[in-house]
Write a structure and sequence with these properties.
With about 325 residues, the chain is of the alpha/beta class. It has 14 helices and six strands. The chain has a six-stranded mixed beta sheet with strand order 1-6-5-4-3-2, with helices on both faces.
Length: about 325
């Protein structure tokens, strides 16, 4: 059979189908192996805790039990049984006594990151959110370091914080997709670096994947410098996204300096235009977010008074937040 005849018989489709089968099989195999690995470490942790409960030495980090286990398991089973790893297995079982509460979506490396969190509420949130949004280990680490749980918690009451921990972030209204502040440390911009708004926008586009991670689940990128023409005048929206869950456009305007009331008028114009000219029957009212380096809450309150559109003002920071301060604020709520 010659090549031309093979190609005429949907040869390319055959190659694609075989490729899809292999990809699917490899994914299933990885998940199966991961589940076995996590269950194995859970079982080892259980054995250690059961040993302790029979009146033997507690396996604290500095205990001789860890030394003995590490030495003897390396001799019997090979690599993978350092003192640190054995302690992690013990701690893993300590946090997840019931195997059914362990998520099959997360790898052992995910759980190592989660075990670094002492607070149960915080750890539960990241576990639920990681499973929902399928974060990589690197993405999970970034969200922990940027104090996502605490930033979201500060906009809620005690009941809301507990719900956040138990269920992860549930997006029902436009308010659920807004954070304050937004952390843009991944742009690697010094606080003292003098940028213009165009440069900041370009940096975000260059790091779009990380910016989408910071925005949260449901955002898809539409365009930057989206042109709006009204009569003979032209305006440009810095960043336009579409939110799949809320089914609406999200418009973002970047401000290097302080927020001012003029910014609200400009964003309100953008929102009115999108509502009338861009929305389809299936689309909900658009959301406008003014992202500023600084803002005064009193100024924001007066500037937004009487605005019927979904318009918000948040700060952005170019460095990771003081997590300890955020933790204190959340403790006050609880």
């Amino acid at each position: 059979m010659n090549i031309k005849k093979i190609q005429s018989n949907n040869y390319d489709l055959l190659i694609k189908n075989i490729g899809d089968i292999l990809t699917s099989s490899r994914t299933q195999a990885y998940r199966a192996i991961n589940k076995i690995l996590v269950k194995t470490y859970w079982e080892i942790g259980k054995q250690i805790r059961d040993f302790e409960q029979r009146g033997n030495e507690r396996a604290d980090y500095g205990s001789s039990l860890l030394d003995c286990l590490s030495r003897d398991l390396k001799l019997k089973c090979g690599k993978g049984f350092s003192r640190r790893n054995i302690l992690d297995m013990r701690r893993f079982y300590g946090k997840y006594r019931i195997w059914q509460t362990v998520s099959a979506k997360l790898s052992w490396s995910h759980y190592i990151e989660l075990l670094s969190l002492d607070d149960d509420l915080e750890r539960n949130f990241y576990e639920k959110q990681c499973g929902k949004e399928m974060w990589s280990v690197r993405e999970l680490r970034r969200q922990i370091n940027s104090a996502l749980f605490h930033r979201l918690s500060l906009s809620k009451d005690k009941k809301g914080v507990l719900q956040l921990s138990q269920q992860g972030q549930i997006i029902k209204t436009h308010k659920d997709v807004i954070k304050d502040p937004y952390i843009l440390e991944f742009l690697n911009i010094s606080e003292h670096n003098k940028l213009n708004e165009k440069s900041l926008e370009n940096k975000i586009i260059e790091n779009l994947k990380m910016f989408l991670l910071e925005l949260g689940k449901g955002f898809t990128f539409v365009a930057n410098q989206y042109r709006i023409s009204i009569g003979t005048k032209h305006f440009y929206v810095d960043l336009v996204f579409y939110h799949r869950i809320l089914q609406c456009f999200v418009l973002i305007d970047l401000k290097l300096g302080d927020f001012s009331h003029q910014d609200v008028g400009q964003m309100n114009l953008y929102l009115n235009y999108f509502t009338k000219e861009e929305n389809t029957e299936q689309d909900n009212k658009p959301i406008g977010l003014i992202l500023a380096a600084q803002k005064n809450d009193v100024d924001v309150e007066f500037a937004l008074g009487g605005i019927s559109n979904n318009l918000f003002v948040s700060k952005y920071k170019l460095y990771l937040p003081d997590k300890e301060s955020l933790e204190k604020e959340v403790r006050k709520l609880l």
